[in-house]
Design brief:
Layout: E1 16-21, E2 32-34, H1 38-47, H2 73-82, E3 84-85, E4 94-98, E5 103-105, E6 117-119, H3 127-141, H4 169-174, H5 191-203
Antiparallel strand pairs: 1-4, 1-6, 2-3, 2-5
Helix pairs in contact: 3-5
InterPro entries: Gig2-like, IPNS-like_sf
Protein name: DUF1479 domain protein
Organism: Absidia glauca
Length: 206
């Protein structure tokens, strides 16, 4: 959702946020921390500002238009106290969490080896995401920043940046340069899935 045309707005539909580990990552190694009690934490940060003793506070306790909701010990200490680090992961492991789940990165990385992850949210195929991919594809061709990110367009003048010609077939499908295969005989597909694929290819003009 992007109501304020601000950096950090999201015009895609994300089911989960997540990342894939590029190395071993352990607790105290700069890994992700989450509050596992999603119903309780959501009720807490949404309802607390509405209590009589807080109704004079105009900032909704860390919520500002166009920015993520800041969870702080001053306003949300029970949530902060519930935060836990995810267990150790190895390269190739994926970690996913609900988009409304309170999460943070550990403040310190005490690992003696590399600790790296690649942010990779889950974005199902639907009209909104296919429309985003079309805009992202056009930006990629021109070396521009993808939609929803601060537009520094820093690759426009780089001569050896990635191009369509450097992509594999699967990469071209993922970036919207080739149609997503639609197999009406696939045993695992449903009419709704086939319709989504058809609409996806049509939105991309493929």
């Amino acid at each position: 959702m992007d109501l304020y045309d601000a950096p950090g707005g999201c015009s895609m539909f994300r089911v989960f946020q997540g990342w894939v580990a590029l190395s071993d990552v352990t607790p105290s190694g700069g890994t992700i921390r989450v509050c596992p009690l999603i119903k309780q934490q959501t009720a807490y940060y949404m309802m607390k500002p509405l209590l009589d003793q807080h109704k004079h506070e105009a900032d909704f306790m860390g919520a500002w238009p166009g920015r993520c909701h800041d969870i702080s010990r001053d306003h949300h200490s029970p949530i902060v106290d519930c935060m836990v680090s995810v267990p150790p992961v190895h390269y190739g492991d994926g970690v996913f969490w609900h988009c409304d789940q309170v999460h943070a990165v550990e403040p310190k990385n005490e690992m003696t080896t590399d600790s790296s992850v690649l942010y990779i949210p889950t974005t199902p195929m639907c009209q909104r995401n296919s429309e985003y991919l079309k805009r992202q594809r056009d930006a990629f061709v021109n070396g521009q920043t993808p939609p929803d990110f601060p537009g520094n367009n820093c690759e426009e003048t780089i001569l050896d940046r990635a191009t369509v010609e450097t992509m594999s077939e699967n990469e071209k499908i993922g970036m919207g340069f080739l149609p997503f295969p639609v197999d009406p005989q696939a045993a695992h597909s449903t009419p709704g899935q086939r319709l989504a694929l058809k609409q996806h290819n049509e939105i991309l003009g493929l």
